[in-house]
Amino acid sequence: xxxxxxxxxxxxxxxxxxxxxxxxxxxRSERGVHDAVTTLRRAGCTAYGRxxxxxxxxxxxxxxxxxxxxxxxxxxxxxxxGVEGPFGPLWECDxxxxxxxxxxxxxxVLLATHALLPGMLARRTGRIVNLASHAGVxxxxxxxxxxxxxxxxIKLTENLGQELRGTGVHTASLHPxxxxxxxTDAVLAGEADPASWRGRAHVWxxxxxxxxxxxxxxxxxxxxxxxxxxxxETSSGAYFTTETVTRLANDGAP
Length: 254
Hints:
This protein has 9 helices and 8 strands. The protein is of the alpha/beta class. Strands 3-4-5-8 form a 4-stranded parallel β-sheet, sandwiched between helices.
């Protein structure tokens, strides 16, 4: 689990651990990883963790190799690490900050998948769930870095699903909804200047939450757990929302 020390990532890790899954967390903050692992272990879960930046191939691979030594084989990868990126019209955004969002949100998925997929293929079993967003399938003006990066994650998942046909390894991208944790904490606190582009985006998100469109982290974590169990050859590569995952859980249809 990348980005697993807090927010949605930690909620997913806790949900999987409660199901008896041995979980491994990767996040940039060493303190955050330590605290998350300690919390899970105190709850009786089996958990391990390493601090690593998902954009750094060398340190990420080292962390994953060390976790495999402690954990054993990895049968499920959840790519959750992500950043917002800059807000505002494209021509006003700093190109380096814009590309940094692509680096974390897309390269991070690529590197973690590249490191762990060969082992899954060798065992002919595995699941990869990539956290995406509706921003990747519908325009979100003034949040282009985030939107484009999530579109790339959805398309990467779709292509990988086709490449994995017949291997026993399946993948999916998931839009968890506006999850009421992590990023939305800052939104609800109104930390951004309402006149700024970030602040305007936050005003819209607050309106969505106040209208009851927020998703409890437990519901989003349940969706990941369902995908980990129910993904099949026919649904591999697909883009899911929490609603379509519910249908998958009920009748097995993608």
